[in-house]
Amino acid sequence: MYLLAMARPSLREKIIESGVQTLHERGYSGSGVREITADAGVPQGCFTNHFRSKEAFASVVLDRYHQRTQAIMDLTLRDERLPAVNRLRAYFDEVTRWLEEAGWRYGCLVGNLSLEMPEHSEVLRSHLIEVCRSLTDAFADVVRVGQEQGEIRLDLDADDVATFLLASWEGAMMRMKVDRSPQPIEQFKRVLFATVLQPPR
User: Is 82 helix (H, G, I), strand (E, B) or coil?
Assistant: First the structure.
């Protein structure tokens, strides 16, 4: 019994790691317990042993996906050796490489879940609110640095800019997913850096 109990966390981890890819590629609606466990290579019974519901599972997967996004932010947005605008450019360029590796097919899991989230799911909705707030805060911090250093215009509120960045970026990735083309991403970056992320006049 002790050995069985010790084995369970590794199975849970296997389901979570595989689940990030399953939900990202198949979507929330297209990922039933059968698909999730089959992709993870575990018996269906393992799912209910570790997760109360599909919503609870999606919340855990969202947290894991967000950890990966945070790792990219650590390398780019939080790299204090770079000027603020260069940090933002590095972040978007790094995610673009990530999207290219997936053939421009899957977009962002945060955006995908936001669109697919069941209307009654307060568990998933609250998780998405937390993740979006974390992303927005990270953008706002860099924008403030850029404003303080004279790199970014001062006539826009940093929090407003950050909210706009996230909404526009998610929209560009959604269109990219539909077109299966990098063009919406590149258009987003061209307009962003030519207008919003300009120094004061």
Answer: coil
Tell me the Cα Rg of the chain. 19
Residues whose CB is less than 8 angstroms from the CB of residue 15 and which lie 6 or more positions away in sequence, other chains included = 36, 37, 40, 42, 46, 47, 50, 51, 57
pTM over 0.85: yes
Q: Residue 74: which of 129, 138, 30, 118 has the closest Cα?
A: 138
The pLDDT of residue 1 is above 70: no
Token readout for 195 is 């207008």
Secondary element (H or E) of residue 85: helix 84-101
160 Cβ contact list (under 8 Å, min separation 6): none
What pLDDT, on a 0 to 100 scale, did the predictor assign at position 57?
Answer: 94
For residue 129, what are its two tokens?
A: 């609110």
Cβ burial 8-25 (10 Å sphere, 16+ → b, else e): eeebbeebbebbbbbbbe
Local structure of 113: helix, strand or coil: helix
Residue with tokens 């850029």: 146
Handedness of CA 20, 101, 193, 152 (dihedral sign): positive
